[in-house]
Amino acid sequence: LVCADVEAEMGSWVVELNGTVKALQRWMPQHFARQARYDTGLTFTQHLAASAASRMKQ
Hints:
By secondary structure, the chain is an all-alpha fold. It is built from three helices and no strands.
């Protein structure tokens, strides 16, 4: 994602990754429930990471 040349390329990678993550969530729901509890405590301090994180949550 960091190496994406344009925003559209980043968007297409995010869509692809989100599809994979959704399939894994159906396969391992307990793992993702535990991960979600952990993720609520994370804070992104770098602008690029915060931007990418917000796109991943969409």
